[in-house]
Design brief:
Elements lengths: L1 E5 L6 H12 L3 E3 H11 L2 H11 L6 H12 L8 E4 L5 H14 L5 E6 L2 H15 L6 H14 L1 H9 L3 E5 L4 H11 L4 H6 L2
Parallel strand pairs: 1-3, 1-4, 2-3, 4-5
Helix pairs in contact: 1-9, 2-3, 2-4, 4-5, 6-7
């Protein structure tokens, strides 16, 4: 199973990806985790990324795509993967499709977790308070949601045009949301899970 999890910050993508990787027997690939690991390990791409981040700039799509290509070439991703945090815009969408075509691993489905904005603000504010983080104020969360709507929402439209988008209600208990995601996967997934 090769799938992308889409959704606003705080919609539960990372949490659901952790559950789904066990259910589906494929790795959870988070571009944020890849960046942090590459920087920590001092890989050639990690060194480039660190220099960019230390200069206060965003890491380029080329660097992120390079890290993604390295990760998807690892043996555990041969049966599929769950992508979380990428693609975030239409340019990344196009680059990802070209990469997956080159690897012979076309995307099967994009799942968009639908969660009301005010519930996301509550979730992130609660998480920030629990973790003692001061950067996730309701105002900054609303701004992140605005940027998400502007840049990332067109990605969902792109996958919808390809007939590869399923929108899932992201509100409820973790296992309820996971169940909805699993039910939205293409036919044949159950058989694949049984043999995993």
């Amino acid at each position: 199973m090769r799938l992308v999890l889409l959704g606003a910050p705080g919609s539960g993508k990372g949490t659901q990806a952790q559950i789904l990787k066990t259910e589906l027997g494929v790795p959870h690939v988070s571009t944020g985790d890849l960046l942090r690991a590459a920087v920590k390990a001092g890989t050639p791409l990690g060194v480039k990324a660190k220099a960019v981040m230390e200069a206060g700039q965003l890491v380029s799509d080329d660097i992120v795509l390079g890290m993604l290509e390295e990760r998807l070439a690892v043996a555990d991703a041969a049966r599929g993967f769950i992508l979380d945090g990428y693609p975030r815009n239409l340019a990344q969408c196009e680059a990802l499709e070209q990469l997956l075509a080159r690897l012979g691993q076309p995307l099967e489905i994009a799942i968009k977790l639908e969660v009301p904005g005010e519930l996301i603000v509550e979730r992130i504010a609660g998480r920030a308070a629990a973790e003692g983080r001061k950067d996730d104020t309701p105002e900054t969360v609303r701004e992140r949601l605005r940027v998400y709507a502007e840049q990332t929402a067109p990605v969902a439209d792109h996958f919808a045009r390809l007939g590869k988008l399923a929108v899932v209600d992201g509100v409820g208990k973790l296992e309820e949301v996971s169940g909805r995601i699993l039910a939205a996967l293409p036919a044949g997934t159950e058989e694949a899970r049984a043999s995993a």
